[in-house]
Amino acid sequence: MPQASPRHTTTRTWTRDGVVWLSRTNCVCACVRAYVCVRAAGTRLAWFKEQLVEGRTEYTYDEVVVLIQGYINRYADELEGIKAECKRHGHRTKASRQDLIVRTQTTENAEFKGGWVMPDLRRAKVVKALQNWNYELNLLPSMATNAFKPQSE
Question: In the predicted model, is pLDDT for residue 139 greater than 90?
Fold first, then answer.
């Protein structure tokens, strides 16, 4: 008789260098120990939390779109520096980093065009919850979310 697949028996989270990590043992994929970086939710929202203006209770749709565009372009200065260094040296000195930034921006732009899901900053209750958020991932489902798309021009 075949044995049932092992379940995630132990789950532990911790924060290191501002990144929330999740550790699971006995995972279904037959690995002994897997570390899964929960960056998609934690780090992204941490960036948005840092951008919130103290004392603001609500944001308009256009302001949220500008915040999202700022998040997508957060590596623009580093990318310009890499391009300038490439011109100076005549070859791509940091090609892998440049490729990673371009790939990240492309992926995030595609996500934005399809609908960027994040806490709905147009609601005062959600803004207050995000401002008071202590980086615990279990508190995220309690925040109302909305999909934001770029305004059609």
Answer: no
